[in-house]
Amino acid sequence: MSPLLATALTLAARTVPVLPLRAGKLPFGNCPSCRDNACGGRPNMKTSGPCDCSGLCHGWAAATTNTHTLTSPAWVRAWGQAQAVAYHPGGAGLTVVDLDNADAIAWARQALPATRAVPSTRGEHWIYRGAMQSANAVRDGVDIKSTMSYARWLGPGIGTMTTLPEAVRALIAKEPATVRPTPHAITVPLSTGRGECPHRTPAYLDRGITMAEERITQASSAVHSTVYRTFLAVLSAHGRCGCLTELHAARLFAAAQARGESARHCSDAWSNARTALGM
Prior knowledge:
The chain has 279 residues and is α+β, with helices and mostly antiparallel strands. 36% of the residues lie in helices and 14% in strands. The chain has ten helices and nine strands. It has helices at 3-13, 67-70, 73-81, 102-111, 166-169, 175-178, 202-217, 223-238, 246-258, 263-276, and strands spanning 18-22, 26-27, 84-87, 94-99, 116-119, 124-129, 135-139, 142-145, 151-152. The chain starts with a helix and ends with a helix. 38% of the residues are buried.
């Protein structure tokens, strides 16, 4: 048994959902059946992850406490190639404030209640008891990792874990004003609304858009192609039934522009994705 798998099983026994990370601190890619979200990402409450496949699909959503899944042949092969163990903080009822540099740590010591701290490569992870919405770059060098996100397991840390304070929850209030434009800023064609809607609840579509935002935000390279592939996946899953709105497109464009993409490139990528899908 690999040391990483042993660590994962220990965490799973403590009801912490875990998954392996490959080089670059990234989850393993979707299996062939789910590539480019071809499966639709529909939730399956009986197993880990959002669909019926047995692979390590869908990033953070693959995190599980199921020891049978963690030790299945596909997962054992992945653990043999993995570089680190990750966990889903929100799934464990936790929130990680990822402080990426010394200035961020100094700010946290002044602005946030003390809690359990874990040294990271460049800073610290502050872990609070309680889950919330995840958000990147809430201020310079500070990310929030909780629901629909993952964090590297860096050890148990030191200090007493305290309850998630309002000071942390308030950090994401700045995000809509600084990252997401208003809907009228987007002038790209959406869907015709003639297809059958597979979205059982509005939360399903919102979850898909949030996952797409995270995919763009977390791209470590090839941002141009990542944006295009993400737009293609979103339109493939949600573009023919009329559920996509300009607000959804605005969220995706904002995530891309936050990574340095121009508005022109976003519009071109969206149009090219529609053309590729025959829309």
